[in-house]
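During the no-cost extension, the postdoctoral fellow (Dr. R.K.) reprocessed legacy sequence entries with the updated structure-token encoder. One reprocessed record is reproduced below for audit purposes.
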Amino acid sequence: MNPPPFQRALDTLRAILDGPPLRPELDLEDMPAPQRLAPYAAALSGGVWRDEDNEAATGRLIVLYDPEGRSGWTGGFRIVAYIRADLEPEIAAEELIGSVAWSWLLEALEPAGYAGESGTITRAVSESFGDKADEPPATELELRASWSPTGEDLAPHVAAWCEVMCVTAGLPPSGVTALPGRPGGSGR
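Re-encoded structure tokens follow.
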């Protein structure tokens, strides 16, 4: 039997998965959680689709719960997030993209309430050689972060992770319409 706070977290995740999509471009699924990080864990995977054939970002969100808490945690919960997104080469070359991506996460988490945040942002450029020399360079961003929620309602934390995944994929923030002809816009 799960402790009541963790059961409420599971119920929240199930309601999000079974409810209406948070954004039409977003696809969320339940996935197996790592079992060695905490006594109780649950996980979601997500993808952001620009169209049926173009997945622009992927991610995982892991909810850890230890009734005893852990060093560095505020309370019994810790959330671990991972996001990987393709970037336009000129955006990947921007010196401040790591700081900007981190600020997206903190801004999205602000209404949820968080503490003890930590993480890394990695930019990668893949170049092809030999028989693959004709393929253009690929650039991507990886965000790895963890934080402790300051309350037990995890729905805003899931929404924040989803929002950052969408923005990192080049979509406009929720409630903002992209201009036609711009990445994420409807001018195709």
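The helical segments are 4-18, 89-92, 97-109, 155-168. The chain has a mean pLDDT of 88. The remaining legacy entries will be reprocessed before the final report is submitted.
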